UniProtKB/TrEMBL annotation:
Span of domain HTH tetR-type: 9-69
PROSITE patterns: HTH_TETR_2
Highest rank taxon of the organism: Bacteria
Coiled coil: none
Record-linked PANTHER family: HTH-TYPE TRANSCRIPTIONAL DUAL REGULATOR CECR, HTH-TYPE TRANSCRIPTIONAL REGULATOR RUTR
GO terms, molecular function: DNA-binding transcription factor activity; transcription cis-regulatory region binding
Organism: Nonomuraea mesophila
Protein name: TetR/AcrR family transcriptional regulator
Amino acid sequence: MATSTRGRIDKRQAILGGAFAVFARLGYAQACVQDIADEAGVAKPTVYNHMTDKATLFRHAVEAASQAALDARIGALAPLADPGDDLAGTLEDVAHALLRLHTDERSCALKRLLYSEITRFPDILDVVIGSGPHHLAQALADRLARLALAGRLRTTDPDLAAEQFLALLLGPLEARSRLGTRQIADTELRDLARAAVGTFLRAWVPDRP
């Protein structure tokens, strides 16, 4: 029974991954279920066994991709649990990792799908937002609150600090990438991370006696 359940979960994940790849490549209108089955390496009836129709498949594929992107971004915050003596360096590494994740192919594909299909599926905006910015900001606020308790940051409002940290990163990123349509070199991402962290620390590091 456990093997059967595992196999069903694996097939579902393969279908959702294949569906997202096809939708990102062809768009919703041009994608067909046979393309998705071929991409996922399953039979076409198997797709329908897991998803009732193409619209349902699209929504679940976008939701799964959004959740995977969120998991990766929250994972990038791990170094803040033990930043060592070089808080600025650790924050720069975390900021750089977040910028890279926000500009990877999956994130760019999610943006393209959101922009192109929002009129057909107005509810996918809620799906993407529900698996994204709010949860990332909450996770970051938790890390910043711990740093504040340790005396490393001066803040009684970690939620505000997290919001400003992300704004310093993603605001310039959206402008420079032209809303994700222009590829940014890794050196430029590193420069953006360094500038954002410098501004953030000037605002939130405790004054030294």
